[in-house]
Amino acid sequence: MSDPHRIVIVGGGAGGLELATRLGNRLGRRGRADITLIDASLRHIWKPLLHEVAAGTLDSHEDDIEFLAQGHWHHFRFRVGRMDQVDRQRKVVSLAPTVDENGELIIPRREFPYDTLVIAVGSVSNDFGIPGVREHCIFLDTLEQAETFNDILMKRCFQAHTIGKKLRIAIAGAGATGIELAAELHEAVRALASFGLDALNPEEDVAITIIEAAPRILPALPDRLADATLRALEGIGVEVRTGERITEARADGFTTDQGHFIPANLMVWAAGIKAPDFLAGIEGLETNPINQLVVHPTLQTTGDPDIFAFGDCAACPMPGTGQNVPPRAQAAHQQASLLYRSIRRRLKGKPLPEYRYVDYGSLVNLSRYTTVGNLMGNLLGRWSGSVMLEGVIARLIYLSLYKMHLLAVNGWWRTTLMTLADLLIRRHRPPLKLH
After folding, report:
1. Are residues 241 and 371 in the same domain?
2. Is 434 among the domain residues?
3. Do residues 38 and 9 touch, judged by C-beta distance below 8 A?
4. Between 143-163 and 176-194, two packed helices, what is the crossing angle to 10 degrees?
5. Which one of 70, 126, 250, 339 is most buried, counting C-beta atoms within 10 A?
6. 3-state class of 168 per DSSP?
7. Which range has the worst mean pLDDT, 112-126, 228-242, 395-409?
8. Which burial class, exposed, middle or buried, applies to 402 when counting CB atoms under 10 A from its CB (0-12, 13-18, 19+)?
9. How confident is the model over 380-389, as pLDDT tens digits?
10. CATH code, domain carrying 140
């Protein structure tokens, strides 16, 4: 009997975890494939929720998924580490040594052989080489960074409560992440004040500013919804500065090309993304200027048919548009579903299907204040065009997207039980993480 086909998936984000789970359930359980998922973290949380973790309105320890447990339940192997090299001739993935905060070696460099390699390492913030950004800004690319931000936020709030030092938060970027974070922070500060930090005056002691180089916020949404979002932000006291490009980040704030200085003692960079730099160094694989691996519509890399890439780290063309698939959670979910079918067909020697992006629209959630978005005709069956949504209906649809991800990794039964448990205990816990 031949050895099982070795499938290595690098990256445990939404798409990578969904793919590993489905392949494990179908192929791993039956011994038809040996599936390994590699990620630098021990836990997974849906990336669109990281701004809630940062604000403290979502406790990551209640909503995370532990990779080891997921692998045990769904018949794949999990290994912790960060890929930094691929030897295509030997067909092995190499993981960088793991060291602790003191630089002590914990795990040496390791190699994992593969027959099929799937790269789903997502994206990281792009600082565009602007001086001081790496040194003075916090990024929200990972769960660990979001938790670090929350720790700093709590310290700054207690500082404002105790000694009266004002909290000034500056967010670079008015895309969905920056907008949602601003609204969530506004809600979190008010919740803290109501839970005992009564000397913290949210109106006087806290200032939140969003800086955007483009002429308007939320370029992915129609003008009417972007304008509605802007009014909502201004209504809760968030300052939005559009048409200003940040030229430098300093320890005490941002400078812009308009000659302005925005003071801040907590700065977040959410102004653009790129794929991790190491992808550009994999010999024989084609990348674009932001390090994304260029792939065929089958999601195979142009330089190696045994290596697939999808999600934010892949540049997948959309036929007839001259553009690539946008880096959005719905695209990663669709591509994971396609690759689940593709890899099964690949093991049978059958031709692979091609990916076609289906745009279901965009939704932006402004904490408890409002949700706005548009649903495309693709989601509305025979209807054409798009439908613009605001308020409760948009909020419910936004929440359903997260439930779809949970269904993909946990199944109907466990997702239903988790949802019921959350509803039962929500009334008996604070509206945000207080430690």
Report:
1. no
2. no
3. yes
4. 40
5. 339
6. strand
7. 395-409
8. middle
9. 444 444 555 5
10. 3.50.50.60
Hunting for tokens 């959350």 — which residue is that? 422
CA separation for the pair 350, 112 (Å, rounded) = 26
Give residue 136's pLDDT band: very low, low, confident or very high (50, 70, 90): very high
Q: Are 140 and 261 found together in one domain?
A: yes
| 221-231 per-residue burial string, b: 16 or more CB within 10 A, e: under 16 | beeebbebbbe
Looking at the predicted structure, is the pLDDT value of residue 63 above 80? no
Token representation of residue 121: 């390492």
- Residue at token pair 């799937």: 118
* pLDDT(379) > 50: no
Residues 296 and 367 in one domain: no
Q: H-helix or E-strand containing 333?
A: helix 329-347
- Quick: pLDDT tens for 338-350: 999 999 999 999 9
Distance separating alpha carbons of residues 185 and 191, to the nearest angstrom: 10
Instruction: Answer whether 112's CB lies under 8 Å from 79's CB.
Output: yes
For residues 20 and 148, state if they share a domain: no
d(CA 4, CA 34): 6
Domain containing 32 equals 5-123+275-347
Rounded to a whole number of angstroms, the distance between the first and last alpha carbons of the chain is 54
How many CB atoms neighbour CB 142 within 10 A?
Answer: 17
Residue 32 and residue 11 in one domain:
yes
Token pair, residue 202, equals 């949210």
Tell me whether residue 357 is in a domain: no
In a domain, 355, yes or no: no
pLDDT band at 189 (very low <50, low <70, confident <90, very high): confident
If one counts the domains in the chain, the total is 3
Residue 297, in any domain of the structure? yes
Select from 253, 272, 291 the last residue of a domain: 272
Which of 347, 377, 392 lies at the terminal end of a domain, its last residue? 347
175 with 263, same domain? Answer: yes
Q: CA–CA separation, 372 vs 225, rounded Å?
A: 6
Residue 433 structure tokens = 């993480």
**Cα–Cα distance measured from residue 299 to residue 296, given in angstroms and rounded to the nearest whole number:** 5
Residues 177 and 306 in one domain: no
Query: 3-state DSSP call for residue 208?
Result: strand
Which amino acid, 397?
A: I
